[in-house]
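Protocol step 4 of 6: structure prediction from sequence.
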Amino acid sequence: MTAALTLGMSVVSAAGKIKSGRAERDRYRREADLVELKGRTEAIAYKQKGADILSNLNNTLAAIIARSAAGGVDPTSGSAAVLATASTADGITEANIAADNAILAVNQASEQADIYRKAGDTAYKSSVIGAIGTIGTGAYRYGQLTG
């Protein structure tokens, strides 16, 4: 009776280890999904920032042209053109940085999500190995008690 109980408890313990490993794997998978969602959200924010920068650039260029024309100056030459060119260069640089940051946010989130998924898979595999060890130990004890 004691031997069978020992073996039965080993099986129950092994099943618990596997269930725990599955739960940990699932938790890591949910964490990976959240990280990816956060990365996509950050990317959207960066894209919006880039669009806002370009909109501000458009407003700045319109103001330069309007002020130049109102002052009787050709907006396509002289200091007005220099100011417009400098504003355009700065705006495009900032918009490109925002676009790059959007790409980086998605890529970093994807990498982190992969790390979480691998950690979850490792946790599950470890639980299975632990369960096999527990059953092996139980079988050994069973053999000692009955043998």
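Step 5 (inspection) to follow. Residues 35 and 78 are 50 Å apart (CA to CA).
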